[in-house]
Structure formats: C-alpha cells, structure tokens
Amino acid sequence: MAPSHALRCCKRALNWVPVLFINLVVAWSYYAYVVELCVYTIPKTNNAERISYLVIFHIFFAMFIWSYWKTIWSKPASPSTAFALPRAEKELYEKEQRAEVQQEILKKVARNLPVYTCTAGGAIRYCNFCQVIKPDRCHHCSSCEKCVLKMDHHCPWVNNCVGFSNYKFFILFLAYATLYCAVICATVVQYFVKFWTKLLPDTHAKFHILFLFFVAALFFISIVSLYSYHMWLVGKNRTTIEAFRAPVFANGPDKNGFSLGIKRNIADVFGEEAKYWIFPVFSSQGDGHSFVTRLVHIDPEQANSVLQQNGKIPVAGETNLSMVADDEPHTEGKSKEKTDGGQMVAVTMDSEP
Questions:
Q1: Contact 210, 196 (CB under 8 A)
Q2: Which residue, among 38, 62, 60, has the nearest Cα to 49 in the 3D structure?
Q3: Is 28 domain-assigned?
Q4: pLDDT, averaged across the chain
Q5: Is residue 336 one of the residues assigned to a domain?
Q6: Is pLDDT of 306 > 60?
Q7: DSSP string, 139-204
C-alpha cells in the first residue's frame, strides 16, 4: 500500500532535521565567535586583532553559507523528454510481457540517443518509475523519486541529491566548511589554552570558547577527509556510485571509462575559466546527458539533433565540450584532436582494457 499523503509530509519534514541541525550549529558558532570571543574575550586594547579576526571569519563564513545553500536549493537535473519512449514504442513496451522483446524495443529507441553504458548483463538502462532510458551516469534516486543526471549520491545533510546540477557547489561547500573550521581553530586556540590553564578568569565566555574549539576541530577532521575523497573522485572523473560500481560499456566494465586526464577531469566539474572555480556559480561543462569517454566515439551531430529538441544544448555554431567530433575511430595509445569553432577538443586513449 502506498504511503498516505500525511506520511509523505511527515517524511519530507523529517528529511530537513539534519539540515536544521547543521544550521543551528553554524548559528551558535557564529554567536560564540563574534560575540563571546571577539566582543567579550579579546582585550579591548587588541582592536587590530579583533578586526582582523572578524574580517577573515566573515569572508569564509559568507562563502560557506553561500555554497551550502546553493547545494540545497539547486534542483537535481533530470533527463530530458528526448530520452522518453515515443508514444508508439511506449505502448508496445507496456503491452509486451517478454523481457527480451522489451529490450529490443529499448535498443531500437536508444540507437538515436547518446547512450553508451548498459547494465551488467548488457541491457539498456531503463527506469520504470520515470519511464525514460537512462542517460550515461544517470541513476534513479528513491529519496528524490526521480532520475538524476550524473548522480553522485543523496546527501541527508543538504536534503538533496548531489549530481550534475550541484556537484561543484557540493565540493565548494566541503572546501569552505573545512576552511571555516580551520579559521576558528587557528584563531581560538590561544584563548582555549588560556581558559584551560586558568590564565583567564572564568566567565560566561569560557564554555563557548572551549566547546567552540572542540566542535570546530571535530568537524574539521571529518569534513577534510570527505573533501579529500571527493577531490580524488574529481581527479579520476568518477562519481561515488562509479567508485563502488564501475560503469559498464559494450566491451565490459571500466572504472576509468570517463577519465580524460586530470586537467580535463577538473575542468569537467569546475569549468575551463579558473576565475569561476572558487565561486558557487554553475560553470561545469556539458549538459549532463552525454559525456566524452576514452572508449566510445560520440557523434555530436547525432547527439545534438536529439537533445536540441528540448533546448538542453547550444544551437549550431556553439562548441559543446561534452562531445568529440571525429571522423576516424580512436586507437589505443594515441590522441585525436580537431578544431571546431576556434576551439580544440582532444581525447587521449589509454592502453588499459
């Protein structure tokens, strides 16, 4: 039996509890640092120290909050209607009971789509809930109840799916959270020691300063490890899902199938213009529906003709770096380059299977 509307509402409300917890901790840390440390604890004779602490603290606090809420409010990108079955094929698929015949229907439709990964058994990846052929790196999220492009994972701390539309924001959230905690620890430690060794008198600020240092240090240790792991994934051009289960191509699974070298891998998430890397504004490459791989030649004309129907990619005359134009098949150990619209796109083929 499907859950009632009331239960669904309760579940959605409970999903915000981790977000509320994080915001309460951050709000308290702001009060403890600005009021208890900078106003009541730092001597009034040290105005230069107080001002420098407040300026540095507020810079990282603002970037942390900005990237955190961008991660929360960025709607997960879903497959366009170009990946849905046409009406005639959909009726045939729903009427057909034999799995092998259903697969033939899906394969017929998938021939016109930029889809190059499959299930472990070689079948077309199809979502029965969303009723779409899944683009490469797309997965269905049971919490969001939708298919998410380039899904990494569902994060309860942001109550949102982390995927193509907000992965950069999530990385920056981890980075600025780490720096936020590091700034607190570095500037609070001297007063933490003075309170701990009773060089400062016991005041109402003592509890806040001691607890602030412990909480910031604890969060720093946990967040920096998660941030390091995700930066490693960025360097490999893998999602968390792909790290545990390698994507399957026509010639079998390959965990490095989407890796194009560390420079291209970083640009895939953060964009080619370094001036946008530190800001939580969308600059990731591609459209989330198709990806360059080191194993598969993607014909941009075929992919664009399908995806342009829904305005998912630039019109003719603009270069889409998520695809590679090439008239010859790639060979192992070599690289192919082609200039298109003044931009050069290169893919290096590794010798690994």
A1: yes
A2: 38
A3: yes
A4: 85
A5: yes
A6: no
A7: EEETTTTEEETT--EEETTTTEEESTTTHHHHHHHHHHHHHHHHHHHHHHHHHHHHHHTTSS---H
pLDDT score at 263: 94
Q: Report pLDDT digits (tens) over 94-129.
A: 999 999 999 999 999 999 999 999 999 999 999 999
Q: Are residues 254 and 330 in the same domain?
A: yes
Top pLDDT among 300 and 106 is at: 106
Q: Which residues are catalytic?
A: 155
Q: Residue 344: helix, strand or coil by DSSP?
A: strand
CA 98 to chain centre: 37
Q: If DSSP codes are grouped into helix, strand and coil, which group holds residue 129?
A: coil
CA distance 351 to 331: 9
Q: pLDDT tens for residues 159-179? A: 999 999 999 999 999 999 999
3-state secondary structure 223-270: HHHHHHHHHHHHHHCCCHHHHHCCCEECCEECCCCCCCCHHHHHHHHH
pLDDT band at 307 (very low <50, low <70, confident <90, very high): low
Clarify whether residues 257 and 328 are in a common domain. yes
According to DSSP, the residues that pair with 126 across neighbouring strands are 133
End-to-end CA distance of the chain: 47
Same domain, 24 and 63: yes
* β-strands 252-253, 343-348 pairing: unpaired
Full domain range(s) for residue 48: 5-76+168-217
Instruction: Name the nearest CA neighbour of 258 among 226, 292, 308, 300.
Output: 292
The angle formed by the CA atoms of residues 327, 329 and 330, to the nearest 5 degrees, is 120
In this predicted structure, the answer to whether residue 67 has a pLDDT above a threshold of 90 is yes
278/274 Cα distance (integer angstroms): 8
In a domain, 148, yes or no: no
Same domain for 199 and 277, yes or no, is no
C-alpha 8: how far from chain center: 26
